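Thread: "does anyone have the structure for this chain?"

Original post by V.I.:
We have the sequence but no experimental structure in hand. Need at least a predicted one for the grant figures.
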Amino acid sequence: MEYRPLGRTGIQVSQLCLGTMMFGGKTEEPESARMIDHAIERGVNFIDTADVYAGNESERIVGKALAKENKRENIILATKFNFAHPADINAKGLSRRHVISACDASLKRLKTDWIDLYQMHRCNSAVPIDETLRALDDLVCAGKIRYIGGSMFPSWKMVESLWVAKELGLNRLICEQPAYHLLDRTAEREVIPAAQSFGLAVIPWGPLCGGLLSGKYARNSSVKGARWQDGKDNANRRTTEQTWAVLDLLQEMAHNKNCSMSQLALAWNMAQPGVTAPIIGPRTFVQAEDNLGAVNVVMTAEDFRRIDELVPPKGYIVRYYDEANAIDFRPSIQRSIV
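Reply from O.Q.:
Generated one for you, C-alpha cells below.
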C-alpha cells in the first residue's frame, strides 16, 4: 500500500479509501466489521462514510469497529452531511443549524471526539456558501473536525468556496469527491484540473461504475439482485454497444495481467493525474479482498493508450457524472457575502 498527501494538509492517506455505503444495509454488521479490520491490516488508513448511509447505521458500525483496540487513533476518518429525511424540515441541508447538529450526531455515532474530514454531501444553492463555511470553520476551531471537503462540487463551486474562505479568513476546502471512473471521465474537463491548480485532494467515488466495471456483467444477460439489469442501473444510467466494447477490452487486459477487471479499473483510477485515493465500496468480504488487490496491478503506457482509444480523455461512455451531480443551482436566490 502506498500513501499519498491529502491535498495540502500534510496528512498521508492510503492510495485506496474504504467506502462504507453498504455497511448496515446490504452488508450486515459482522461482515462490515471484518472488512474494516482486513482493510486496516492491508494498510488502509482512510475510511469514508456518511450520515445517510443505511439510515446512519454505517456511521454506527464504523464507530464501533474503530473503537476496538484503539484503531481510531491511526485512521483518517471521513464522513459527510447534507441529505436527510426527517420530519423536521430544518434537520437537513447546509444551514448553520444543521451543520452543527449533524456534526454532533455523527460524532456520537462514530464514537469519536473528532472527525478528520467533514464533507458537504453535494452543493445547495438555497444556503449561501459563506454561512456553511463559517459553521464548518467554527467546528474546526472547536476541535470537532480537522478538515473540510466537498462532494460533487462543480469547478466553479469549488473556486467560489475557496474565494469565500480567503475573503473571510476561514478554513478552506482541502478535497473534492467526484464520481469518476474510466467509463465517465467528465471530471477531467474542469474538476480535476481545478483541484490540481488549487491543491485539493481528489477522492473519486464510484470507481467501478456501480459494479459495471467489476467483470460480472455480460451482454444480454442479467445478474439476479445486481444493480445493473437489462443495460441500465437502478438510477436509469444506460449502457451502449460501445460500453460493451470497452468491457471486452478490459476483460482481455485483465486476463493478460492475471487480475480481475475490478482491480484493473481501480489501478487505472489510482494512476490518473490528480487522483489521491479512489473510494472502494465493497458489499462482501470477497469484494473487499479483490478491490484491495488492485494496488498490485501495474499499468503501462500501452494500457492507457488502448483505453484512451475507446474512452477518450474528458469523454464518457456511460453518462454517470452528470446524472449524479444533483446540484440545485437557482441564480435568483444567490446572495452576496455579508
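V.I.: this helps a lot. The longest strand covers residues 115-121.
O.Q.: and Residues 329-338 have pLDDT under 50 and may be disordered.
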